[in-house]
Task: structure prediction
Amino acid sequence: MDGLITSLDRQRVVLHFAGGPLDRNAMASSMGDVAEAYGGAGAHSLFVLQSGGLRETLTRNLPHVLREAVFEIVLKRVLLCVLGKAAERSVPGARGRSRSGNLPVPSPHRVAVELNSMEKDGVEPYASLTPPTGMSRLTDAESQWLARTLSQDQQLRSLGRSASATDSELLMSLTRAETPGATEGRHSSRTGLEVATGLLVRKVVNAARAVIERFRTGTHHGLYPTAVEEILREFCLTHLGAALWSGMKNEAATAFRSDEGSPAGVGRYFLDRFIEAVAVPERKDVTVVGHGSGTPLMNAFLAAFDARRGSADSPLPADFRIRNVVALAPMCTFPELASTLRRRNTAFEHFRLFALTDEAEKADHLVPVAYPRSLLYFVSGVLERDANGMSAAVPLSGMARWYDSGQVVGGPEAEEVRAVADAEPSAFVRSPGAECGARSHAQFRADPALLANLQLMISG
Result:
């Protein structure tokens, strides 16, 4: 964490939390337009920059995996399974097939044509497909039929016999997955990357089942992106960014704590010095901004600030409030944002959230062609964890689709946040629009309309 309080020599103060690349100089330089805007509003600005390099890590490693021939083979089979399930209600004789488990799977050639159009023309496969109403879960009979059918698939059988001379991340993940249940003697005699066909088939069916379940619950991101996400999850390829994202969130959650009997860390030191600096007779006018992956850190700061403000030894006046809290494309879950919103009227007064429209979110591709969705989509679909700490698709509060689609997902906290958004539509801004013209997450740092909007909020 970077951020040093020297002297807050202006009445207005902005505290800006952001995540960014590993190169701290690059992070600092990327804040130039924002810092200039804050200065133009007559504010003293402080930046707390958490360097994690999440986007760097993903854009460096994901293309290698997603463009593997092995990944494409598995992807085709997952798509076939899901398409068969999606078509069962519209094909004559579906009831009899359902009892036997036989699904109306399309021809592999048709799927190959869709995928080839993506490579050739950049068109997302099955972009117009919508899940049928009343889509059911994959039954045991259907799973067994798919497993039997896939077990005879010659390409999968060939992968199952693969050994040593491959650098496939996907095949290596299968070897790692099998390791815990094997004996030392067995592994010492195994050829390095030999993989059981049965394990490969089982993972294809599991990934297809997960895609179908997300179609049923409304948490899918479109057929092709969701299939990619669930393959990465099923084949334990979330190591491409999951550990990094979890580490960043854990660091944020503990940054401002001061456990009894333990020395205060740098985050708590920063919090205490900040409170001392704003707890002056003339009452500093404070705005707090969180951008993208810096939002969890902002949430943790506000929680710690609120607790410290209400403590018996706090130097802050009892009625002191941060005036504005602004979330720019917040990369946090609905429970995390709901917790922050509950602090309104205790820790702060006004709240505004700026998010890309879903159209712009989908167009801000993390990996061109191979993964046609944004970083927030990927974090939501692959890297997040559920309440039990398990890998799961989790809606993010910075994605406009969860406010605009009418889908009831995300649990009671999501409903709580959506209720605020419905009651205060001017506090939840979609971009591009009159108040913000950003069409990508990177543009939030330099968009003239947004910077003018922030200046007005700070100085108003």
